[in-house]
Amino acid sequence: MITVSDFPTYRGTMEYVCLGCQARFDIRELYYTCPHCGGVFILEDTSFDSLLEYPASYWQSLFDKRAATRVTALRGVLRFYELMAPVVDEEDIVYLGEGHTPLVAANEALSGIVGAPFYYKNDGQNPSASFKDRGMACAFSYLKHLVRVNDWDSVLTVCASTGDTSAAAALYAAYVGGPIKSVVILPKGKVTPQQLAQPLGSGATVIEVPGVFDDCMKVVEHLADNFRVALLNSKNAWRILGQESYAFEVAQWFGWDTYRKCVFVPIGNAGNVTAIMSGFLKLQKLGVIRSLPRIFGVQSHHADPVYQYYDEADPAKRRFEPVPVTPSVAQAAMIGNPVSFPRVAHYAREYEKIGGPGSFQVVQVTEQAIIEGMLLANRHGHISCTQGGECLAGLLKARELGLVEPSEVSILDATAHHLKFIGFQEMYFENSFPAAYGITPDAKYVNRPRSIMTDADKAALSPEDYTAKASAAIVEALGLARK
């Protein structure tokens, strides 16, 4: 019998590996880019092959039993401990309720519109209402580990953000407390009020700078290269490890059967699509899943450098070029120079070696399709954000291009809660989008409140007459029939 009441005994041997020059570095220091060549890192457990001594059924059973454990350290994303950060101790693990987000099947009507079955994975049901909590749980657990073993008395965490990263970073920093303080750097005027309120409410120092996310990222990179700060963007390889849990949870939801599954992910800064590919590769190597699901990255035509790269059919001719961005309702995806692109290229090659050609693809969608994807999903009972709308637009595009068959099951990543992006819905309903968005509302999606009586009308009536008149107006508006 597998016992999950005790913390795992396995400890990995982890190293930073530079994807540029292949140099390796000790994890006892915080690294974000390679000191030799400036390349980005992945984290590798050089002891991983020792896990192959156990059969796939062992890991499936273990992870399934942990999903119901009361051991706090194993309740969240670290229930996949051996696959993620097997160097921290139980006391280091930070758990705020992240992970375990549901997959909600599209209803018959919406599946009929798409022409194929699909699910939304609602990562907006994480603690700070976005998928970023997965990465922060892992990154802060390792940071807490370093603080404890090194007896650090002061750690300043810093991140650039379009909203979700800052909310998650500030929340986890506030919870861990002690020597850890949080600073977030945002592009002025390009974060929704809801997303700005979150780090402020968590007590973080919020600094606004002019420009877009890419400009903020350059500032943060300069700070991380020259000053003692802990960077929490996706250049932080520990964050990528935490986000691998998305792949693990998708596989677990389907009973470890990923055959003929397609996973749609908005690319943005490319950390999440990287993590998801890495996670599925680990499961396949262990034999926990037999086949890799196909991965579809999705990008808006307003910020599509990864799409442009893979749009070149000949790998020998591909050249990555950053692109200028224009306003996007999928704000987290409005990134023209994703820092994790080297990881995408690395894992896409590894993925296609096993999954074959087409196991990783990128589709491009319009801003009109993104906002209407969100509205369409939510009119059928979902709580999709604009990035979730981007995924639905991506699935519709893939179906149009014949890339997804009616018998395949798709999983769409709703990265955040709908309410974080409610302002874009309002702009659509009011037809108030600036021209740069290129969005023209379609009347069939517009929904506004209906007024039946003025305040002056109410003031002139007795309470009884008000009830009767208001009820009569509603009856007329709705065409109600008497019992």
Task: Provide structural commentary.
It contains 17 helices and 13 strands. With 483 residues, the chain is α/β, with parallel strands linked by helices. Among the domains are: 103-128 and 240-443, Rossmann fold (3-Layer(aba) Sandwich), CATH 3.40.50.1100; 449-483. The strands form three sheets. It has a six-stranded mixed β-sheet, sandwiched between helices. Strands 8-7-6-9 form a four-stranded parallel β-sheet. It has a three-stranded antiparallel β-sheet with strand order 2-1-3. Helix 4 (132-150) runs parallel beside helix 5 (164-176) and helix 8 packs across helix 10. The protein starts with 13 loop residues before the first strand and ends in a 5-residue tail after the last helix. This is Threonine synthase. Residues 96-407 form the Tryptophan synthase beta chain-like PALP domain.
Give me some keywords for this one.
single chain, 483 residues, alpha/beta, Rossmann fold, 6-stranded mixed sheet, 4-stranded parallel sheet, 13 strands, globular, Ser/Thr_Dehydratase
What is the gist of this entry?
By secondary structure, the chain is an alpha/beta fold. The protein contains 17 helices and 13 strands.
Biggest pleated sheet: 6 strands, mixed
The chain-level mean pLDDT equals: 94
Q: Stretches where pLDDT falls below 50 for ≥5 residues? A: none
What is the level-2 CATH architecture name of the domain at 103-128 and 240-443? 3-Layer(aba) Sandwich
Question: What sequence of helices (H) and strands (E) makes up the elements?
Answer: EEEHHEHEHEHEHEHEHHEHEHHEHHEHHH
- Shape label: globular
Q: Under the CATH scheme, which class of the domain at 103-128 and 240-443?
A: Alpha Beta
Number of helices: 17
Q: Tell me how many strands there are.
A: 13
Q: Please give the order of strands in the largest beta sheet.
A: 4-5-13-10-11-12
Computed over alpha carbons, the radius of gyration is: 24 Å
What CATH calls the topology of the domain at 103-128 and 240-443 is Rossmann fold
The helix content is: 25-40%
GO molecular function: L-serine ammonia-lyase activity; pyridoxal phosphate binding; threonine deaminase activity; threonine synthase activity
Family: Belongs to the threonine synthase family.
Cofactor: pyridoxal 5'-phosphate
Protein name: Threonine synthase
